[in-house]
């Protein structure tokens, strides 16, 4: 491979001036970012990240499946699709009290956002009333709320927003070109329409995709282009590494090189400088070094808690240890999210402060250790 000249690298870097928010990226420009030497790409992503965020703060969300399995959609990656036999037991919509109990536990463990997911094509009228009550009750705990319920029309989005839903998650999943290989029961245009309805209703948008589904490098660039074309950018961008579930059509797809995954995180950070980029599903299958690189590349959000929707996530204790090792701390929720303040919310604020103090103490201890090592050397 011929070495890239310093000039060509510099030219590529000028494609993404530090922190500039753009919506008109071409796939070729994005591919040029992917092609940068890894160190240059990560350095650039760090610069963008630091211009917009505390580089050591990570937003912490916990997921709960509120309705599991038997989904009519045929997403080839998904253990919950009724089209495949993954041995997953189906569950009806959970009772509100059960959801509130789980949200309280998530808050106690240190999560600041509670994300509720349902295996639906779109919510039915009678289910929506229950879901709206879940939003109100979880919000009253002082947690930020997020839901992912499939497609929503303008009326449904309006009612969710009115109930106080902060974020709606609906992923584009992959490039428009590769999409038909993965899902046939809803279109890319359907997804964009739902995202438009969410935005119009005044909620924050959470939208990202899945990597490692056998897509080509250009598909990863094209997915990120689609996300960056949204105006405004999604506030939250989950980048999932495919969790290969036996029984799904993608169970044996070839692994994506972790370095390619990190590149995609770095490019997402550069394209959407002010968005939270979530190192989403797939952390259980990643080692600590890959996760550390993802944070270096600009990821600043995770799912925290032992379970994603139906598959496992690293144990909370393991994540607390990783945060301490890397000197990361949970991002403190903005004041506006706490304006609904109740006693419960105050408790949450105290807990967050305690978590920040704990991480700081771990950092101090590490610094003392290093100073001691240096003195011994
Ligand atoms: N049914 C709703 C929908 O698809 O809009 C919400 C739930 S669905 C499980 C939410 C997202 O989870 C999907 O869009 C997909 O990006 C992600 N997901 C599902 N299965 C996954 C897997 N095996 N690995 C990684 N991400 C996955
Ligand atoms: C997202 O992008 N990833 C989450 C959340 N949004 C809803 C879901 C990941 C699901 C992984 C497979 C499972 O646990 O069922
Ligand atoms: Fe259903 Fe969502 Fe799974 Fe697709 S990703 S099968 S819509 S639960």
TrEMBL record:
<feature type="binding site">
    <location>
        <position position="71"/>
    </location>
    <ligand>
        <name>[4Fe-4S] cluster</name>
    </ligand>
</feature>
<dbReference type="GO" id="GO:0051539">
    <property type="term" value="F:4 iron, 4 sulfur cluster binding"/>
</dbReference>
<feature type="binding site">
    <location>
        <position position="278"/>
    </location>
    <ligand>
        <name>[2Fe-2S] cluster</name>
    </ligand>
</feature>
<dbReference type="Pfam" id="PF06968">
    <property type="entry name" value="BATS"/>
</dbReference>
<comment type="function">
    <text>Catalyzes the conversion of dethiobiotin (DTB) to biotin by the insertion of a sulfur atom into dethiobiotin via a radical-based mechanism.</text>
</comment>
<keyword id="KW-0004">4Fe-4S</keyword>
<dbReference type="GO" id="GO:0004076">
    <property type="term" value="F:biotin synthase activity"/>
</dbReference>
<dbReference type="GO" id="GO:0009102">
    <property type="term" value="P:biotin biosynthetic process"/>
</dbReference>
<comment type="pathway">
    <text>Cofactor biosynthesis; biotin biosynthesis; biotin from 7,8-diaminononanoate: step 2/2.</text>
</comment>
<dbReference type="InterPro" id="IPR002684">
    <property type="entry name" value="Biotin_synth/BioAB"/>
</dbReference>
<keyword id="KW-0949">S-adenosyl-L-methionine</keyword>
<keyword id="KW-0093">Biotin biosynthesis</keyword>
<feature type="binding site">
    <location>
        <position position="206"/>
    </location>
    <ligand>
        <name>[2Fe-2S] cluster</name>
    </ligand>
</feature>
<dbReference type="InterPro" id="IPR006638">
    <property type="entry name" value="Elp3/MiaA/NifB-like_rSAM"/>
</dbReference>
<feature type="binding site">
    <location>
        <position position="75"/>
    </location>
    <ligand>
        <name>[4Fe-4S] cluster</name>
    </ligand>
</feature>
<comment type="similarity">
    <text>Belongs to the radical SAM superfamily. Biotin synthase family.</text>
</comment>
<keyword id="KW-0001">2Fe-2S</keyword>
<keyword id="KW-0408">Iron</keyword>
<dbReference type="GO" id="GO:0051537">
    <property type="term" value="F:2 iron, 2 sulfur cluster binding"/>
</dbReference>
<feature type="binding site">
    <location>
        <position position="78"/>
    </location>
    <ligand>
        <name>[4Fe-4S] cluster</name>
    </ligand>
</feature>
<dbReference type="GO" id="GO:0005506">
    <property type="term" value="F:iron ion binding"/>
</dbReference>
<dbReference type="InterPro" id="IPR058240">
    <property type="entry name" value="rSAM_sf"/>
</dbReference>
<keyword id="KW-0479">Metal-binding</keyword>
<dbReference type="InterPro" id="IPR024177">
    <property type="entry name" value="Biotin_synthase"/>
</dbReference>
<feature type="domain" description="Radical SAM core">
    <location>
        <begin position="56"/>
        <end position="283"/>
    </location>
</feature>
<keyword id="KW-0411">Iron-sulfur</keyword>
<dbReference type="InterPro" id="IPR010722">
    <property type="entry name" value="BATS_dom"/>
</dbReference>
<comment type="subunit">
    <text>Homodimer.</text>
</comment>
<dbReference type="InterPro" id="IPR007197">
    <property type="entry name" value="rSAM"/>
</dbReference>
<feature type="binding site">
    <location>
        <position position="146"/>
    </location>
    <ligand>
        <name>[2Fe-2S] cluster</name>
    </ligand>
</feature>
<dbReference type="InterPro" id="IPR013785">
    <property type="entry name" value="Aldolase_TIM"/>
</dbReference>
<feature type="binding site">
    <location>
        <position position="115"/>
    </location>
    <ligand>
        <name>[2Fe-2S] cluster</name>
    </ligand>
</feature>
<keyword id="KW-0808">Transferase</keyword>
<protein>
    <recommendedName>
        <fullName>Biotin synthase</fullName>
        <ecNumber>2.8.1.6</ecNumber>
    </recommendedName>
</protein>
<dbReference type="Pfam" id="PF04055">
    <property type="entry name" value="Radical_SAM"/>
</dbReference>
